[in-house]
Amino acid sequence: MGADDIEPSPDEKLDLVLGDFDGGVALWGSVPAVYDTTKQPMDRGIHVHARRAQQDAKDIDRTYRKLRLPLALDLLSDGWLEVDEIDSINYMVSSVFGFETIVVNCALCGFPHLDRDWFAVHPHRKHQCHGCGRHFSDSTAGIGNPLARLRELLPMARRSSLIAPRTLSISQKDYPGGVQIWGSNPAILWTPTQPEETGIHVHAFAALNDHLPEVDDTYAQVTIDGITLDATQVRTLMAQSAMPHLTGRIVCLSCPACRSAHFDVGELAFTPHTDHLCHTCGQGFRSKSRAKNVISNPFLATKEALARTAANPVRNDVLGLRPETL
Question: Which domain of life is it from (predicted)?
Answer without folding.
Answer: Bacteria
